[in-house]
Please model this.
Amino acid sequence: MPRFKDQAICIRLIDWSETSQVVALLTEHHGKIRAIAKGAKRTSPSSVQRYSGGVELLTLGQAVGVIKQSAELANLTEWDLQQSYWHLRGDLDAQRFALYAADLVNAMLAERDAHPVVFGTLRDLLAALEEPAKRQAALLCFQWRVLEDCGYRPELDRDVIGGGGLGAERSFTFDARAGGLTAATGTGTGAVTAETAWKVRAETVALLRAMANATDDWSAVKSQTLKRANRLLCVYARAILDRQLPTMGYVLGES
Model:
């Protein structure tokens, strides 16, 4: 029964009984772990000591537990709260973005498959959401790095349907089935369909290409461009998952 001790962010939390919880943790080096925290809700001195600060959704702590290969859930035996991200409790917009981020990593990652890059970018996002002016840029960085680390980096410089390079169009088409930009139309061989393709403005493409080249200078980027880029990556993730997560509406402007 391998024991783990790792930095972790709580991305799911369900009350299992009056005294225990079932949690999903994104750990830095052990990937996503679903575990039962027996006695985590008790107020006895021993429980308070083992689950210091309490296990709460969208918090960072050091997790200690045991993974049983024969069991669906690991056992979370200790939790040391390190960062509460209180701004997520007092600001609805920040909380919504954080909930979407937790939903996305939970859906994209397989259990016990280590993704330290995803862990780091989620941790950075939760901290950055404290400043309203930086939220759209922080969310865009987060979505891009999650998609890239999971093997779904969008193709922005080559026509993913027709092949070859892309010209200096004023607008582009993004085809989620093929995973990138195309000059193909809605008719003929290799045509795109309305269900999987979206029109994209040139400035949005330029922003995403800056992301691909690790250019993080957002000083000249308009807020609406950041929002459009976030919506595009969100619908791309929706196509990859073949379903819409409940929190995607926060990014798509549907709720």
